[in-house]
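Q: I have 77 residues here and want to know how they pack in 3D. Can you give me a structure?
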Amino acid sequence: MPVPHDLFQDLSCTKEEIQQKRTKDPLLDSLINKYSLADAEVVKAEQAKSSDDAVLKLKAKRLEVKDKIVRQLQSPS
């Protein structure tokens, strides 16, 4: 059964740490919202047993957003 990715675990941060950073950084907040939507699309496609190609494209989109989140977290504030 498809399950959502745990972004906080992937980032090696607690939910509280990320939440605190989100309140101070509107771009980070926006990126995390985009990640949540992209992750939900992946889960939905996997549950619907969409084609492998479609799922891979959605996963690539999710990864692209995650990479932007990582870069934003690493940028000096």
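Q: Anything worth noting?
A: The mean pLDDT is 93. DSSP finds four helices and no strands in the chain.
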